[in-house]
Design a protein that fits this description.
19 helices, 51% helix, 475 residues, two-stranded antiparallel sheet
Length: 475
């Protein structure tokens, strides 16, 4: 083994600087004495810069002076390269200034731009001010939150702004596995409820409706917590030490009576902020809550388009117990089988997702809505004059057997070879008509067959606060 000297650790640094010096010298050797063609290019660039950024003209003139000086001296000495220039007695400073002329030209262009837009004299104070704000961000955060709360407030009222500030300080999701399960989703959902409540045209006071919307699920700031999940690679006979992956965070809900916690929190917050709402606001908020939940579910949550081809390829089309049937350029698949495999794909890529592949467990309905919301999914919404429902589902009869909740995909857009095991006349498509969506769809019998969960926001115990407060005199 070679003996290591005390200079061994410096070798990479020495090599780096040696390589840097080589490239700088190469650039200097090739550009210190420009050709006539190169000079004409410089002149064209300087004319353009003078037209758009005349404030940097003195630097353009300086760069041109350096170039012309180097060219005229080289012509007088009868040389074309820097080495011969120096050997014949030329001043090496002329070569250095000629080589640096392109950087002087660049600086002139930057100077002209900053001066033109008015940033030159304010650039340094802005940078220093930005660094100060970043270093002392905790001091400015309350003021920024006040500005954001004022901007978000549907009604510019102090009580409304204070409630929004409470949401901003506790950015919990609207639900764990249902609508708007992102961080800060509760505020987004509450503002949506407020907007819809105002649009319903109720004769009630607008401020009361907005306050009730911001309060209706406020108990979730006590119910939802983040926990860290440590992901570790699966053991392998090749890898001796499994790689530890960066822990991910997921939201969990406390195992308590959530409806009671919500009602108690509403009373406490109302008393603290001096809010006294009439009983009549809660039915309006309950209706707006249902509409807001439906809107949020329709937006989808996951990008599922990239999984469609793989999921369709893994379904069973040959065995007696089939997951789907091909008819011409279309394939019909049972929604519960399709959504189960799609959920498994999502969990494979991110095990921390609040999903379960079983169709009657919370979370899978979000996948079903994501399938509809993703425009890259080649779902067929009309087949031979029969239209799909709001979730993209048909009913089909195959050889006198009725199958409910079936997706139809266009194979010409997927480029997937699926065997056709039945004749076209053996499959009849039945229009499902207007099916319920949102919470109604989640509670319907067909929801279980489509892989849509029977759980809704009310299952979390805090989505029907209007019913709980009726007969109790409000908050």
């Amino acid at each position: 083994m070679a003996k290591q000297t005390r200079y061994s650790k410096d070798h990479p640094v020495v090599a780096f600087f040696a390589l840097l010096f080589f490239f700088v010298f190469l650039d200097f050797y090739m550009s210190a004495i420009p050709s006539v063609n190169k000079l004409s290019q410089y002149i064209a660039v300087i004319k353009t810069l003078n037209a758009f950024l005349p404030e940097g003209q003195r630097y353009y003139v300086l760069a041109m002076k350096y170039l012309e000086n180097a060219i005229s001296t080289a012509q007088a000495l009868g040389v074309k390269d820097p080495l011969a220039f120096v050997v014949k007695g030329g001043d090496w400073k002329i070569l250095v200034l000629s080589w640096a002329s392109k950087y002087v030209l660049t600086f002139g262009a930057v100077y002209g731009f900053l001066y033109k837009v008015g940033f030159f004299w304010t650039l340094v104070p802005l940078i220093l001010g930005g660094l100060f704000i970043v270093k002392n961000s905790s001091r400015f955060l309350p003021y920024l939150m006040w500005v954001k709360a004022y901007w978000l407030a549907p009604i510019k009222d102090l009580q409304v702004i204070r409630l929004i500030l409470l949401h901003l300080a506790n950015p919990v999701p609207a639900s764990i596995t249902h609508h708007n399960p992102r961080e800060g989703g509760l505020l987004d959902h509450s503002l949506r409820v407020a907007r819809i409540a105002l649009e319903l045209g109720s004769p009630l006071d607008k401020k009361a409706l907005v306050l009730a919307a911001l309060l209706h699920d406020i108990g979730k700031i006590r119910l939802y917590r983040k926990e860290k999940v440590q992901r570790v690679s699966a053991p392998s006979p090749i890898v001796v030490k499994p790689e530890k992956k960066k822990p991910v965070e997921r939201w969990i809900s406390l195992e308590v009576n959530q409806r009671v916690v919500n009602m108690v929190t509403i009373r406490e917050v109302s008393k603290r902020f001096g809010i006294n709402l009439p009983q009549e606001v809660w039915p309006v908020i309950a209706e707006a809550d249902r509409k807001a939940t439906k809107e949020e579910l329709k937006q989808g949550l996951y990008n599922v388009g990239k999984y469609i081809k793989d999921v369709l390829g893994e379904l069973e089309y040959i065995k007696p117990k089939k997951d789907g049937w091909r008819v011409g350029d279309y394939v019909f698949v049972l929604a519960h089988a399709f959504n189960r495999k799609l959920t498994l794909k999502l969990l494979r890529d991110d095990p921390s997702l609040p999903l379960d592949p079983e169709p009657t467990v919370v979370g899978v309905h979000v996948v079903a809505y994501s399938l509809v919301a993703d425009k890259t999914v080649p779902l067929v919404w009309e087949y031979e004059g029969k239209k799909a429902d709001g979730l993209g589902l048909f009913d089909v009869k195959v050889r006198e057997t009725l199958f409910k909740a079936v997706y139809c995909f266009d194979l010409t857009k997927i480029n997937l070879d699926i065997p056709q095991m039945i004749k076209e006349e053996e499959l009849e498509v039945i229009e499902r008509g207007d099916q319920p969506e949102g919470e109604e769809a989640a509670n319907s019998e067909d929801a279980q067959g489509s892989g849509v969960s029977t759980a809704s926001s009310s299952d979390e115990g805090v989505g029907e606060v209007g019913k709980s407060f009726q007969g109790e005199g409000g908050a």
